[in-house]
Amino acid sequence: MHSKIWGLHTLAIPCKQTLNAKVIIHKIRIFFLRSIVVGCLMTMLFSCENDIRKVNLVTASDSIPVSTVKNIDLIRSVSGKIVLELTAPLLKTYEGDDPYSEFPGGMKIIFFDSLMNITSQLTAEYGISYEKRKIMEARTNVVIVNNKKREQVNTEQLIWNQVTKKIYSDKFVKITTPEKIILGEGFDSNETMDDYTIKKLRGTILVNENK
């Protein structure tokens, strides 16, 4: 005799009269519990497999650049006047919900005033720019030189918000001026590095103190 339980499997039950009814009920319970456990495990495995496939697809699509350009020279102008020039040996652009451009070979940005004089420049070994958020981040050996004030800023990470026109960092920073060297943790500045504030001052070293 065969009995079908919940339409999942078929269980063979002996027809001997001497078989104890309690044993039959016990076997049915065990079989039923095993069926539930196996079904749950199969569902979990199938869901995990689907999730892994989704993650792999998303990762694959986000990690493939839609374009790669070598030796770029980008110019940004406002009201017909050039305000900055960006050069880089390599530019990779990516699409998605948060599209961005990457400069894996480093970058250099030159800032100009209204008379086309160079006010400052920024160099870094790596850069990334987020299109929608209008945020550019420079990493690794970041150097900013202010020509007017003859100052130089050294740090390992710097963020430039093009909407607020602010440059800031939370990393260790060294600012070298003609008179002194300022050491600190993080800083805030305007776009041209003319006006900045050290967040946590660590120390000041005087230059040419004996002169």
Structural overview:
It is globular, with a radius of gyration of 33 Å. A hairpin with a 4-residue loop joins strand 10 and strand 11 (166-176). The chain is an alpha+beta fold. It is 20% helix and 53% strand. It has 2 domains: 2-62; 67-206, Lipopolysaccharide (LPS) transport protein A like domain (lipopolysaccharide transport protein A fold, Sandwich). The protein is built from 1 helix and 13 strands. The strands form 2 sheets. Strands 4-5-8-9-7-6 form a 6-stranded antiparallel beta barrel. It has a two-stranded antiparallel ribbon with strand order 1-2.
Question: Can I get a quick summary?
Answer:
Helices cover 20% and strands 53% of the residues. The protein has 211 residues and is α+β, with helices and mostly antiparallel strands.
